[in-house]
Inverse folding.
């Protein structure tokens, strides 16, 4: 701007520089002077750097490297220069060396090949005489460590841990931690040394803090290993005097206390003390967090104390939320509540009023935390109000042009007339970022669908909510977040995920809740209708609307509930649909014949000429649409389209051919095509159910049916006519009387192919009568538990009663049904449940009570064989692996490592005699007690009088009585352990003592 | 642990990028862009914590339920004049302490450069890296004492950073030109 243009290169820190090369300053300045043509200038500079970095002159090389590092910050790759980085790293001048190491940190990747060459250089620098030089590899290694590098450099770094200078020690400690992440076994060797540093009272605080920081990182992975160190941590907490350290220790204790509840007993006093005295909010916050997460509320001894502490903590947190002075406190308090709510939901729900207030906070970060919290503490009572509040939040923040689609009072009285709503709308409209809007919708769905909709009481309301959510989907987010092309994918992914989720929710409701199936189907219908689609899905691009798939399935499957099946059908076969995604389209294709059948069958058996022409017209349109899909690039769509195309053509033929005489619907249209879609009702099945189906022992997938198959084929080709009748399968295919297994029969036979048809067909062929009976029986059995079977006038239909227990079937057959292999899938439970549904009043009856708030909905849970296992957890784990954050530093390698050398972990992981365990704990407690006392004395010393204040010594007095120890400090200390050991074994005796301490303080 | 430390100015131009994981340049840039996007939307009165940007939110959706994990879940930022300082960390770091840590970083820089401004950091970016590596090594906090940090950096380079900044200033680019520095690279 106003800066004068200087064309002359300046003298600078690198004296060897000639005026023909650009220094780093020249580069930076040059960037400024080339506004508009920066890209060109940078490319020029990069070219110069490429030649300069190859020069023999180390000064020139280092300067070029610095320029490259600078440009790397702006996204210009410098991985090609890794060898030159190495060269600069080996420079004798410190500043050049430092530039080299900086280059390594900023540009080396795990696959950088020259890393192998660096080993010796790093080794050499690690034993350098100058401390800055030695620090360079220590601060660089953590960023570039690979397994092999860690292995070869471990001894060198280990030796640095006992270096005389604390600056080296602290860095070496952390360096070791990162080496251990790359090479877990390193920790076994390093741990004793780290522990040594930690235990050393004379150690520099920086070094102790560094060890603590490392332990804190390790702590949550292997808390058991650090339990024995609790006394030392306690000591550091109490007289460390450093808030940074105290915060880390408290965080560490929060992971330790769940394993050793006795710790909390020792901890709560110092923590409460800190809470009451500290001025540092960060420390205060971590204390509260530590106390609650550490399980103070599970601590059953001293109930009064517990309540006092709990209310103190929660009160402080509440104060943080309420106060408007510091938004950070508000945020972290919500963060803490979010952790607490998992274990003590009751405690948090008391704060519901203030938390709900945060839902409308101006700060998105705070809102998101409050949203998460609200989702977790929702109950069936508060559900509707919370969801209503969230929805109105979304509506209020919508741009006006979107709002114009919805006239006020268009049938959503729930929140339109809400008193509070006017209050909310009065607030200044906040522009909500689309990510937040998506997040809110996700949460609404989470809240409602939680635990198979157990909190949801009104499903009709929910269906309305779902439709409303569709209209509230964030408007096209291109303009807001599509700055970078690489995120395009992700953004649209999350975007389509939410539309997909809403579609799936409508489908779930339709399947699971029979009572509102009609409402759900109509909701799906309204969204499917082509005229509504543009307005309702205003925010979602057509090509990306994944909600349509599940919706199409719903309108197809429950076509009988559609209000205008014709309109729906026309919407499904609209020409514009051809451009829909393949997944959606294949569901469309499947839904089309279902709705068509519904249209044909809905008018009874009447086959007037008007109906005939209507059917023919519909068929023609369907055929048109399917033909368009016949060459679809997606095979799934193509196959389905062609299959149904053929069926529809047959149907069209049938409609035409019977046109002259018949008054009935052609058989093909009235029975055959509907028959494709009839059957048992579809129930929701758990995702993991398929995995639990055990393959029967007899099922041999790898055994060939017939070893001589080729012989048979060659035989047949040669003299098929002569041998034809003797082939074993001939009868099966060509004899009229042969038993042909029906669909269900096929299911069971396919499980055991050796036994079924061949053995029996011969017999059947001999005795037609027997075959007939048998066929009838199969039919009877098949249809018995099929509530949708429309029986003929045959006498045997009377037998089938829906409530008949399944297992009796086998006793009735005239033939030995037991011979038919049926695999016991242990589905009997779910079958029973199924029959329960059937015996419950049909939907029509329950409809009469519609509108009443007291309706009881039955939500069908997922069907599952046996018990649901932890499969889901496994899945998410693997998901995390594949889908993890790019910044993640994986420490999972440490999980299986035992720091066993010192017996640190063995006491807990293996079964070691209980007594030893107790002794160790007693010893630890002894120390803890001693330190606690020391702390007490410390606080006493504050009193100028020096007279021990009676209040704090209640405990001591008792001790005096019990142990008859002299009052002198030293002996008091000596005798404590005895008492403490007692108290460990007899906690009851300890309780009154504790209470008294509290009352005294 | 701390996963990354970023400094960028009001225009989103990076002044320091330090990642404690090895990731490619492209991902770095996307992350910076996403975080800048979030930071730039925030009013001055908002709290110092950011929601996770899309790049980070995929692996960490269930952070709170599972207790601590390796996934970065906290983004703390703080604005100083024209610059934003950002720390991305896992849940093992205390959120409020991170705000203080940024303050320590800035104060240490201020000591190094004597009344630091954006321009100092542009020309003294090596020094800025040196200060940071005295505070954080491999994502773990190694020192929070400003005196120790500053003296360790001085041991390395004396007053080089300051000298360079002054040199740049003497070349006609006034350090007083702070308000107009936005377009600098």
């Amino acid at each position: 701007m106003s800066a004068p243009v200087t064309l002359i290169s300046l003298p600078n820190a690198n004296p060897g520089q000639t005026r023909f090369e650009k220094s780093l300053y020249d580069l930076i300045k040059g960037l400024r002077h080339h506004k508009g043509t920066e890209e060109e200038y940078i490319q020029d500079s990069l070219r110069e750097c490429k030649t300069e970095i190859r020069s023999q002159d180390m000064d020139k090389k280092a300067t070029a490297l610095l320029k490259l590092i600078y440009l790397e910050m702006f996204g210009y790759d410098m991985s090609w220069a890794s060898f030159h980085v190495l060269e600069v790293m080996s420079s004798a001048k410190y500043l050049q060396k430092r530039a080299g190491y900086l280059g390594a940190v900023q540009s080396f990747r795990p696959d950088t090949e020259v890393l192998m060459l660096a080993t010796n250089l790093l080794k050499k620098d690690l034993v350098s005489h100058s401390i800055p030089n030695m620090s360079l590899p220590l601060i660089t290694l953590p960023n570039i460590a690979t397994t092999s590098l860690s292995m070869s450099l471990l001894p060198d770094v280990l030796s640095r841990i006992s270096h005389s200078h604390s600056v080296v020690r602290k860095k070496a400690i952390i360096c070791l931690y990162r080496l251990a992440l790359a090479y877990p076994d390193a920790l076994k060797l390093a741990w004793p040394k780290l522990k040594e540093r930690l235990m050393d009272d004379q150690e520099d605080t920086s070094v102790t803090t560094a060890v603590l920081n490392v332990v804190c990182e390790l702590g949550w992975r292997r808390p058991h290993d650090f339990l024995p160190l609790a006394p030392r941590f306690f000591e550091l907490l109490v007289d460390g005097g450093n808030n940074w350290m105290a915060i880390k220790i408290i965080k560490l204790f929060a992971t330790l206390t769940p394993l050793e509840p006795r710790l909390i007993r020792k901890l709560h006093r110092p923590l409460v003390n800190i809470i009451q005295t500290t001025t540092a909010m960060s420390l205060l916050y971590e204390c509260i967090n530590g106390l609650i997460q550490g399980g103070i509320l599970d601590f059953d001894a001293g109930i009064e104390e517990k309540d006092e502490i709990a209310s103190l903590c929660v009160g402080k947190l509440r104060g943080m939320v309420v106060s408007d002075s510091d938004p950070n406190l508000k945020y972290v308090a919500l963060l803490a509540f979010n952790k607490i709510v998992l274990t003590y939901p009751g405690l948090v729900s008391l704060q519901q009023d203030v938390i709900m207030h945060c839902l409308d906070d101006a700060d998105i970060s705070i809102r998101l935390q409050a949203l998460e919290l609200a989702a977790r503490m929702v109950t069936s009572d508060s559900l509707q109000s919370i969801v209503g509040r969230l929805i109105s939040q979304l509506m209020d923040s919508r741009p006006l042009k979107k709002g114009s689609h919805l006239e006020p009072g268009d049938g959503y009285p729930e929140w339109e007339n809400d008193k509070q709503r006017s209050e909310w709308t009065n607030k200044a409209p906040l522009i909500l970022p689309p990510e937040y809007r998506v997040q809110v919708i996700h949460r609404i769905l989470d809240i409602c669908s939680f635990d198979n909709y157990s909190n949801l009481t009104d499903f009709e309301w929910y269906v309305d909510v779902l439709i409303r959510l569709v209209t509230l989907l964030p408007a096209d987010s291109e303009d807001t977040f599509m700055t970078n092309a690489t995120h395009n994918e992700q953004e649209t992914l999350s975007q389509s995920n939410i539309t997909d989720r809403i579609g799936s929710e409508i489908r779930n409701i339709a399947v699971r809740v029979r009572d509102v199936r009609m409402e759900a189907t109509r909701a799906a219908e309204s969204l499917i209708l082509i005229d509504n689609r543009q307005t309702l899905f205003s925010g979602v691009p057509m090509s990306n609307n994944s909600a349509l798939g599940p919706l199409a399935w719903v309108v197809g499957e429950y076509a009988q509930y559609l209000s205008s099946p014709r309109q729906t059908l026309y919407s499904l076969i609209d020409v514009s649909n051809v451009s829909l995604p393949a997944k959606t389209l294949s569901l469309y294709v499947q839904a089309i014949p279902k709705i068509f059948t519904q249209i044909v069958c809905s008018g009874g058996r009447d086959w007037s000429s008007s109906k005939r022409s209507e059917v023919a017209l519909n068929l023609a349109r369907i055929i048109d649409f399917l033909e368009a899909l016949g060459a679809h690039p997606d095979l799934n769509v193509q196959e389905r389209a062609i299959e149904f195309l053929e069926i529809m053509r047959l149907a069209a033929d049938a409609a035409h051919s019977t046109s002259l005489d018949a008054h009935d619907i052609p058989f093909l249209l009235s029975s055959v095509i509907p028959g494709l879609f009839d059957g048992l009702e579809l129930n929701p099945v758990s995702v993991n159910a398929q995995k639990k189906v055990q393959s029967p022992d007899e099922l041999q997938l790898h055994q060939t049916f017939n070893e001589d198959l080729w012989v048979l084929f060659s035989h047949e080709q040669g003299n098929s006519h002569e041998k034809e009748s003797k082939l074993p399968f001939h009868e099966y295919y060509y004899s009229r009387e042969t038993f042909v297994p029906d669909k269900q029969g096929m299911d069971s036979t396919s499980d055991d192919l050796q036994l079924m048809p061949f053995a029996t067909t011969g017999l059947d062929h001999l005795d037609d009568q027997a075959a007939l009976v048998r066929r009838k029986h199969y039919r009877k059995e098949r249809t018995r538990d099929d509530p949708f079977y429309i029986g003929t006038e045959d006498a045997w239909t009377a037998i089938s009663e829906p409530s008949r227990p399944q297992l009796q079937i086998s006793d009735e057959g005239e033939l030995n049904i037991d011979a038919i292999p049926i695999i016991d899938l242990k589905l009997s439970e779910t079958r029973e449940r199924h029959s329960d549904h059937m015996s419950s009043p049909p939907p029509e009856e329950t409809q009469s009570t519609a509108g009443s708030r007291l309706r009881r909905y039955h939500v069908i849970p997922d069907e599952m064989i046996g018990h649901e296992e932890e499969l889901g957890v496994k899945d998410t784990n693997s998901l995390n692996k594949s889908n993890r954050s790019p910044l993640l530093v994986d420490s999972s390698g440490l999980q299986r490592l035992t720091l066993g050398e010192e017996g640190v972990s063995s006491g807990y992981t293996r079964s070691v005699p209980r007594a030893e365990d107790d002794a160790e704990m007693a010893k630890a407690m002894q120390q803890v007690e001693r330190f606690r006392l020391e702390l007490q004395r410390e606080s006493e010393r504050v009193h100028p009088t020096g007279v021990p204040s009676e209040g704090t010594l209640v405990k001591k007095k008792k001790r005096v009585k019990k142990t008859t120890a002299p009052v002198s400090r030293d002996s008091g200390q000596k005798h404590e352990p005895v008492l403490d050991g007692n108290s460990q074994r007899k906690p009851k005796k300890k309780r009154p003592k504790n209470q008294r301490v509290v009352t005294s303080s | 642990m701390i996963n990354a430390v970023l400094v960028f100015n009001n225009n989103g131009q990076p002044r320091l990028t330090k990642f404690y994981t090895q990731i490619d340049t492209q991902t770095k840039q996307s992350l910076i862009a996403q975080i800048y996007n979030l930071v730039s939307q925030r009013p001055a009165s908002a709290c110092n914590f950011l929601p996770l940007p899309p790049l980070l939110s995929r692996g960490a959706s269930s952070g709170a339920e599972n207790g601590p994990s390796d996934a970065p879940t906290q983004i703390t930022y703080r604005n100083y004049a024209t610059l934003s300082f950002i720390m991305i960390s896992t849940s093992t770091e205390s959120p409020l302490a991170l705000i203080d840590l940024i303050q320590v970083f800035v104060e240490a820089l201020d000591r190094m450069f004597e009344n630091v401004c954006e321009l100092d950091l542009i020309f003294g970016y090596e020094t800025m890296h040196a200060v940071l590596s005295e505070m954080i090594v491999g994502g773990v906090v190694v020192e929070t004492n400003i005196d120790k940090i500053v003296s360790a950096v001085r041991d390395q380079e004396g007053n080089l950073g300051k000298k360079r900044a002054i040199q740049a200033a003497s070349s006609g680019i006034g350090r007083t030109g702070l308000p107009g520095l936005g377009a600098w690279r």
Remarks:
- DSSP finds seven helices and seven strands in chain B.
- The longest helix of chain B spans residues 95-113.
